[in-house]
């Protein structure tokens, strides 16, 4: 049996994946393959580097530190407006995120990891899904997490990348393609939330993106071949409030999300796998 952890994108909602990882690792369910997109690439890289319960504590510390410092999306409004005007493409600098990643991961490469890792990003020049599987981790994660409009495109070897969620937000199909026979899907809770017709200009892009990501995910789930197990872990502590314009800046409920999702995932695993 080849076990894959698939960690989807979702910005600050990615904290729920920490609760899912705790529930899985407590039951000694460890991955042979980890695939991550956007914030799932960061969480995924951490678990691929350290596939045991200790990684949960470290991830919790990282999320808590981000909540305290607010450095990733913490610029003052005037500064974000100035950057939007001068850059024409984004409102936040990627420097704080890069610094945080470099402090945590340093020069670690994909080949250094004990568990196979794939990180998804969207290539601008090729208009294609791109999978990073070799080289240094930090640039790959920055590319995967380059949210359009919020962060600048990431340049690697002359090619430019945007957030992997544009092409494969929850890469279940990729896990199956790579030979996984048991897939645990760590998603951030948007999959089942009803979508409403947008009524404001800033809602149009969000709703359009959600339609695309959910369509891809549901199609992948519907075509999972016989003999492959797929378990979609439940996210808790999320709501329609997380879709508001400034929700990406709100790290105040990080610990509550982790705890609530851990409880929900623990119950899910006990019921679906009979593990307690």
From TrEMBL:
Q: Does the keyword Hydrolase apply?
A: yes
Q: Name one GO molecular function term.
A: hydrolase activity
Please list the GO biological process terms of this entry: lipid catabolic process
Which superkingdom?
Answer: Bacteria
Where in this chain does the record put each PNPLA domain? Answer: 5-176
Q: Where is this motif: GXSXG?
A: 36-40
Active-site residues annotated for this sequence: 38, 163
- Motif DGA/G per record, residues: 163-165
Q: Where is this motif: GXGXXG?
A: 9-14
Question: Which UniProt keyword terms apply here?
Answer: Hydrolase, Lipid degradation, Lipid metabolism
Xref: PROSITE patterns: PNPLA (PS51635)
The cross-references to InterPro entries, in alphabetical order and at most eight, read: Acyl_Trfase/lysoPLipase (IPR016035), NTE (IPR050301), PNPLA_dom (IPR002641)
Name any one Pfam family assigned in the record. Answer: Patatin
Q: Which PANTHER family match?
A: NEUROPATHY TARGET ESTERASE SWS, NEUROPATHY TARGET ESTERASE/SWISS CHEESE D.MELANOGASTER
Name this polypeptide is given: Patatin-like phospholipase family protein
């Amino acid at each position: 049996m080849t076990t894959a952890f698939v960690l989807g994108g979702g910005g600050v909602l990615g904290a729920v994946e920490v609760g899912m990882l705790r529930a899985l690792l407590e039951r000694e369910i460890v991955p042979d393959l980890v695939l991550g997109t956007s914030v799932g690439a960061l969480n995924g890289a951490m678990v691929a580097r350290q596939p045991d319960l200790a990684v949960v504590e470290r991830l919790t510390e990282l999320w808590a530190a981000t909540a305290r410092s607010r450095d990733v999306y913490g610029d003052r409004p005037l500064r974000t407006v100035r950057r939007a005007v001068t850059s024409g493409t984004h409102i936040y600098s990627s420097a704080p995120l890069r610094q945080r990643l470099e402090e945590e991961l340093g020069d670690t490469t994909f080949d250094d990891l004990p568990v196979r890792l794939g990180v998804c990003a969207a290539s601008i020049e090729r208009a294609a899904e791109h999978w990073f599987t070799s080289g240094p981790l930090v640039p790959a994660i920055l590319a995967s997490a380059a949210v359009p409009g919020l962060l600048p495109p990431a340049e690697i070897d002359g090619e430019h990348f945007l957030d992997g969620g544009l092409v494969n937000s929850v890469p279940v199909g990729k896990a199956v393609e790579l030979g996984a026979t048991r897939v645990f899907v760590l998603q951030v809770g948007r999959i089942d939330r009803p979508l409403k017709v947008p009524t404001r200009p800033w809602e149009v892009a969000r709703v359009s993106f959600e339609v695309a990501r959910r369509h891809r995910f549901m199609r992948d789930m519907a075509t999972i071949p016989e003999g492959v197990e797929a378990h979609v872990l439940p996210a808790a502590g999320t709501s329609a409030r997380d879709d508001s314009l400034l929700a990406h800046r709100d790290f105040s409920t990080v610990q509550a999300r982790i705890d609530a999702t851990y409880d929900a995932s623990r119950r899910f695993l006990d019921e679906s796998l009979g593990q307690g």
